[in-house]
Specification:
Largest sheet: 7 strands, mixed
Strand order of the largest sheet: 3-7-1-14-11-12-13
CATH architecture of the largest domain: 2-Layer Sandwich
GO molecular function, one term: oxidoreductase activity
Protein name: Aldehyde oxidase/xanthine dehydrogenase, molybdopterin binding protein
Number of strands: 28
Number of helices: 21
CATH superfamily of the largest domain: Aldehyde oxidase/xanthine dehydrogenase, molybdopterin binding domain
Keywords: Molybdenum, Oxidoreductase
InterPro entries: Ald_Oxase/Xan_DH_a/b, Ald_Oxase/Xan_DH_a/b_sf, Ald_Oxase/xanthine_DH-like, AldOxase/xan_DH_MoCoBD1, AldOxase/xan_DH_MoCoBD2, AldOxase/xan_DH_Mopterin-bd_sf
Strand content: 15-25%
Structural class: alpha+beta
Distance between the termini: 48 Å
Shape: globular
Pfam families: Ald_Xan_dh_C, MoCoBD_1, MoCoBD_2
Radius of gyration: 27 Å
CATH class of the largest domain: Alpha Beta
Helix content: 25-40%
Length: about 750
C-alpha cells in the first residue's frame, strides 16, 4: 500500500468492525430472524415447466384447508401493462417485467416462476396448501441457449418484444430484446495494419452469486393501509419503490427496515418475495414471513448471464494492438435486461486502443431473469478478451504483461464507450505484478502461470446521510446504505477523520426508509464513494456548526475559528486568547448556544473513478483426471484510497474466490425439459477453503481526485480477471485452451486429447 494514507489519523487504519460483536455473538438480526405476534408462514407455488400458458388456477381447495388464511395469484395484483426500460444503477429495469417476474400472469416463463402463494398458521399447512392448488398449463416450446434463442425459428417468449437498437424497427417479435454498439476509429483499417490476428469464440454459463442467506422477508400490513417490511436486501429504498410499483401503492405507505445480509454480491438488488408477503398480509390481516429454500433461490431468483462471444484482436509484431472487435450475446433470462451493456463497455476497458468495435445483444430465454453479480457483464466479456490477449502474446513471442504495458490505458485514454479517463492506476498494477516475486517463481511439471487484467467503471448515485451529536460529543451517523462489504466501518472512519475524534466515538447506523433520506442500492462499488461523500458532507456540516457555537461562546467572528484535532481553536493570536473547545465541551453547552447539533448530507455523486486490477495465477493440472489445483494467486489492484485496508483485502480475496469457482466449477445445468437439475450447493459446487490457497492482495493507491479522500470503488474489479487468469494458466500448463466455462475435468481432458491428435 502506498504512503498516502499515512498523513491521516484514521484513514487507512485497520479499526475494529462496528458490526463485529453483534455478528460473533449471534445478536445480529438477519432477514428470517424477526418474529411478530400472530405471524403466518408464507410459501410460493412455482412452475415446473420452462414455458407454458396459464389457462386457469383453482385455489378453492387450498383456501378451504384448515390453517390457511390467504391465497393469492397474479389476479390479486394490478395489471402491470407493458412498460419501458429505464435506467437503474448499473443496468436497466422494466417495471412491467419486474411485476411479471414476481408472480406470473398469462404465462410461466421458466422452471421456478412463481404462480401462486399462500399464508398459513404453520409451515406444514402452507406446504400442503400448495399441493392443493390446481394450475391448468398449456405447455409451449422452450429455448434455453442464447444462440438458439436468436435463431429465426426459435420459440418466441414475448409477442410484444421487438428488437430495440436496430434500423428499421422489426415488424416481427423476437427474443433479441436489444442490440447496442460501440465504435472507435476504423477496425477494418486497423486489422489491415496487423501482423497477426487472433479470432476466437467463447461461451460461459449462468452462475449463482453464492450468497449463503436465502431471500427472506417479513411484512405487516395494518388497518390504516400502512405496510412495514423487514428484509434481506441491498437497498431498502429499492424495495420500497419497486414493491409500491408492483402493488399499486404510494411509497409513503411503505416503510422498509433493512436486516443484516448474509451475502448478496448483486443478487439482492431486485425484489422477489416482498410484494407477495405484503399482499398476503393485507389479505390475511396478519404479519407474514417468507423465506426461500435453497432450491427456490436457484430456481426462482436471478443468476448472472450465460453468454456466447466472438473476439478478434490484431497486433503488430512488436505487440501494438491495431484493432479489437467483440460480439457479445448475453442471456437475459425470461425478461429483457442482461448486463450486455456494461459487458460491452468494459470488454476492452484496460487498453488504450485506436480502433474498437463492440456489439452486444440482450436475449431472452426460458431461464430465471438474471440479476447483478459483481461488475455485472464485465467478468464475462473480459474473460474472452484477456484469453485472446494471452494467445496473442504466445503467438508473437512477447511477455503477456509486457503486451499489456504496451497497450495499457492511462490518464487521457479515450474509452470506446465514451469518456476519457482521469488519473488511473492500471499501468501501475501491471508493473507491480511484473515486479512481484510471484511472477518469477519457478514452475514444475504440469504447472502453468496465467495473468489477466480487469476494469470496472464504478458508479456513484444518490445518497443521503445524517449525523447526530450527543451531549458528550459522540456522533451517530445514519445512512440508508445496507452494509454488505464493510461500509459501516468506512463511514465511521471517514466521519471520525473529518470530525477529528476517535473512531470509537462514532456509531454508524443503517436506518429504515422513514428515518433517513433516499439512498440508492448498495452495488456497483458505490457506497464508500457516494454515501461516504454524503457522510463527509454531514460531518463538515457539524464542524461548521461547532465553529459557529465556539465563535458565539468567544464572541468572535466564525471566520476567526478553525477546527483542528476535534477542537475549535482561534485562527490565530489576533483572534483572541482562548483555550481550544472540544466537541464534547461544545455539545455539552449546545442547549444554551442554539440547541441540538445535527448535520446532514445529500447528493447525486458523480466522478466515481474507474478501477483496474492485474492478477497472477499458478495452477497444476493432473493430466490423468483433468483436475486443476490452484497453487498460488496474487491480485494487484488500484484501490484509490484504502479507507479500511482489511476490508479492501477481503474484497479482493472474495472476488478471486468467486472468479475461480466461475472458472472451474460453477454452472446451471438444465434437462431436456428446461428444468434445473442442480438447485443446491451439493450439486452446484462453489469453492470451499480447501480448494484455494491464501490469496495475496496487493493494494496500490492512486487516489481518485473526485473524492475528498481519494476513494474509488474496489468490490467489482477483483472478480473480473480470475476466469481468464485461470484459463490462461491452464493453457500454459497443458498447451491446450478450453474456451468454454467452466473448465471442468471432462472438457479439459478432451482438449488435452485433441492436442495429442
Amino acid at each position: 500500500m502506498g504512503e498516502q494514507s499515512q498523513n491521516y489519523k484514521w484513514i487507512g487504519k485497520r479499526t475494529l468492525r462496528p458490526d463485529g460483536p453483534d455478528k460473533v455473538t449471534g445478536r445480529a438480526k438477519f432477514g428470517a430472524d424477526l418474529a411478530l405476534p400472530g405471524m403466518l408462514h408464507g410459501r410460493v407455488l412455482r412452475s415446473s415447466h420452462a414455458h407454458a400458458n396459464i389457462r386457469g388456477i383453482d385455489t378453492s381447495k387450498a383456501e378451504a384447508l384448515p390453517g390457511v388464511k390467504a391465497v393469492i395469484t397474479g389476479a390479486d395484483f394490478p395489471n402491470p401493462g407493458q412498460g419501458k426500460m429505464i435506467a437503474f444503477g448499473e443496468g436497466q429495469l422494466n417495471y412491467s417485467d419486474m411485476a411479471r417476474n414476481v408472480i406470473a400472469r398469462e404465462k410461466a416463463f421458466y422452471d421456478g416462476h412463481a404462480v401462486a402463494a399462500v399464508a398459513a398458521t404453520s409451515a406444514a399447512a402452507a406446504e400442503e396448501a400448495l399441493s392443493l392448488i390446481e394450475v391448468d398449463y398449456e405447455l409451449l416450446p422452450h429455448v434455453i441457449d442464447v444462440e438458439a434463442a436468436m435463431e429465426p425459428n426459435a420459440p418466441v417468449l414475448h409477442d410484444n418484444l421487438f428488437t430495440d437498437g436496430v434500423t428499421p424497427t422489426p415488424d416481427k417479435p423476437s427474443n433479441i430484446a436489444s442490440r447496442l454498439e460501440f465504435n472507435l476509429g476504423d477496425v477494418e483499417a486497423g486489422f489491415a495494419k496487423a501482423d497477426a490476428v487472433v479470432e476466437r469464440k467463447f461461451t460461459t454459463q449462468p452462475v449463482h452469486q453464492g450468497y449463503i442467506e436465502p431471500h427472506a422477508v417479513v411484512a405487516e400490513a395494518t388497518e390504516d393501509g400502512q405496510v412495514r417490511i423487514w428484509c434481506s436486501s441491498q437497498g431498502a429504498f429499492m424495495v420500497r419503490g419497486n414493491t409500491a410499483q408492483a402493488l399499486g401503492m404510494d411509497m409513503a405507505q411503505i416503510r422498509v427496515t433493512p436486516a443484516e445480509i448474509g451475502g448478496a454480491f448483486g443478487g439482492k438488488t431486485v425484489i422477489y418475495l416482498e410484494p407477495l408477503a405484503v399482499r398476503l398480509s393485507q389479505k390475511a390481516g396478519r404479519p407474514v414471513r417468507m423465506v426461500m429454500s435453497r432450491e427456490e433461490v436457484f430456481r426462482g431468483s436471478g443468476p448472472t448471464s450465460g453468454s456466447a462471444m466472438e473476439v478478434k484482436i490484431g497486433v503488430t509484431k512488436d505487440g501494438k494492438i491495431t484493432a479489437a472487435q467483440a460480439t457479445l450475446k448475453f442471456q437475459a433470462g425470461a425478461f429483457q435486461g442482461s448486463p450486455a451493456g456494461p459487458g460491452a463497455m468494459c470488454a476492452f476497458g484496460p487498453y488504450d486502443l485506436e480502433n474498437v468495435n463492440v456489439v452486444g445483444y440482450d436475449v431472452v430465454v426460458n431461464r430465471p431473469k438474471v440479476a447483478a453479480y459483481r461488475a455485472p457483464g464485465a467478468p464475462i466479456s473480459e474473460f474472452a478478451v484477456e484469453s485472446v490477449l494471452d494467445e496473442i502474446a504466445g503467438k508473437i513471442g512477447i511477455d503477456p504483461l509486457e503486451l499489456r504495458l504496451k497497450n495499457g490505458a492511462k490518464e487521457g485514454t479515450q474509452a470506446a464507450y465514451g469518456p476519457k479517463f482521469g488519473p488511473i492506476g492500471y499501468l501501475e498494477t501491471v508493473e507491480a505484478a511484473k515486479a512481484h516475486e510471484h511472477y518469477a517463481a519457478p514452475l514444475g511439471p504440469n504447472q502453468g502461470r496465467g495473468v489477466a487484467s480487469g476494469f470496472w467503471f464504478n458508479i456513484g448515485g444518490e445518497s443521503s446521510a445524517s449525523m447526530q451529536i450527543s451531549e458528550d460529543g459522540t456522533a451517530t451517523v445514519l445512512t440508508g446504505s445496507p452494509d454488505i462489504g464493510g461500509s459501516r466501518a468506512s463511514m465511521a472512519i471517514m466521519a471520525a477523520e473529518v470530525l477529528g475524534i476517535d473512531v470509537d466515538k462514532v456509531r454508524p447506523i443503517v436506518a429504515d426508509t422513514n428515518s433517513v433520506g433516499y439512498c440508492f442500492v448498495t452495488g456497483g462499488s458505490r457506497v464508500t464513494f457516494a454515501t461516504g461523500m454524503a457522510v463527509i458532507q454531514a460531518a463538515e456540516d457539524v464542524v461548521d456548526q461547532m465553529r459557529q457555537r465556539a465563535a458565539k461562546e468567544w464572541d468572535i467572528p466564525v471566520d476567526a475559528v478553525v477546527w483542528e484535532d476535534g477542537c475549535a481553536k482561534p485562527a490565530g493570536s489576533n483572534a483572541g486568547d482562548f483555550e481550544p473547545m472540544s466537541m464534547a465541551e461544545i455539545a455539552g453547552n449546545s442547549a444554551r448556544t442554539g440547541g441540538p447539533i445535527n448535520g446532514k448530507g445529500a447528493l447525486n455523486a458523480s466522478g466515481a473513478g474507474p478501477g483496474f486490477g492485474t492478477h497472477i495465477c499458478d495452477v497444476e493440472v493432473d493430466p490423468e483426471t483433468g483436475r486443476v489445483t490452484i497453487l498460488r494467486y496474487t491480485a494487484v489492484q488500484d484501490v484509490g484510497r484504502a479507507i479500511h485496508p482489511g476490508y479492501v483485502e477481503g474484497q479482493l480475496q472474495g472476488g478471486v474466490a468467486q472468479g475461480i469457482g466461475w472458472a472451474l466449477n460453477e454452472e446451471y445445468i438444465y434437462d431436456a425439459d428446461g428444468r434445473l437439475e442442480n438447485p443446491g450447493f451439493l450439486d452446484y459446487r462453489i469453492p470451499v477453503a480447501s480448494d484455494l490457497p491464501m490469496i495475496e492482495a496487493v493494494l496500490l493507491e492512486v487516489p481518485n481526485p473526485r473524492h475528498p479522500f481519494g476513494v474509488r470503488g474496489v468490490g467489482e474489479v477483483p472478480i473480473i480477471p480470475p476466469m481468464a487468469a485461470v484459463a490462461n494458466a491452464i493453457a500454459n500448463a497443458v498447451g491446450a485452451r478450453v474456451p468454454d466455462l467452466p473448465i471442468s475435468p471432462p472438457k479439459l481432458l478432451a482438449a488435452i486429447d485433441a492436442k495429442g491428435d
